[in-house]
Amino acid sequence: MLDPAKVTDIEAIFAAQGAMRLIGAKLARADRGLAEFEVAFRTELSQQNSFFHAGIIATLVDTAGGCAGATMMPVGSGVLTVEFKLNLLAPADGERILARGEVVKSGRTLTITQGKVFVYKNGVETLCALMQQTLIAIPSK
């Protein structure tokens, strides 16, 4: 079970991100070392073939990984992405996407996460992207 103080941290990170509001993301789940966010399809989030745009996928999974990492950092710490790599495996053609970030290794300063993005269409789940990410903890002030 996630410490209530960490839930507050995750909610604060999410609330402070205008990009999450802009794309209509919702927090689906948060636990120690894990965070999931989802977005419903809208044409404003699409690319020319009417799939979710890769930039939306990247934004969502970056936040999922960052919030997963934040669950393992000291209460009140900030978190920043140092780098991430995204592999797009299938078109994100569906009604919604769900991004899951999971901590692989958490250190005092750097944390490594992996992310998976699933697209849902007509009740079928398809893995459409994989991410690897490095985060840095920003000490609380």
Polypeptide structure, described:
The longest helix is centred in the middle third of the chain and has 17 residues, at 54-70. The chain is globular and about 45 Å long. It is 26% helix and 44% strand. It starts with a helix and ends with a strand. The model has no long low-confidence stretch (mean pLDDT 94). The chain has a single domain, classed as Roll (Thiol Ester Dehydrase, Chain A), CATH 3.10.129. It contains three helices and six strands. It is of the alpha+beta class and 141 residues long. The protein has a six-stranded antiparallel sheet with strand order 1-2-4-5-6-3, covered by helices on one side.
Keywords:
single chain; 141 residues; alpha+beta; Thiol Ester Dehydrase, Chain A; six-stranded antiparallel β-sheet; 3 helices; 6 strands; 26% helix; globular
User: How much is the average pLDDT?
Assistant: 94
Largest sheet: 6 strands, antiparallel
Helical fraction equals: 25-40%
Strand order of the largest sheet: 1-2-4-5-6-3
Structural class: alpha+beta
Poorly predicted residue ranges: none
Shape: globular
CATH superfamily: Hotdog Thioesterase
CATH topology: Thiol Ester Dehydrase, Chain A
Task: Summarize this structure briefly.
The protein is of the alpha+beta class. It has helices at residues 4-16, 18-23, 54-70; strands at residues 26-31, 34-40, 78-88, 96-106, 110-121, 124-138.
Secondary structure layout:
Blueprint: H1 4-16, H2 18-23, E1 26-31, E2 34-40, H3 54-70, E3 78-88, E4 96-106, E5 110-121, E6 124-138
Antiparallel strand pairs: 1-2, 2-4, 3-6, 4-5, 5-6
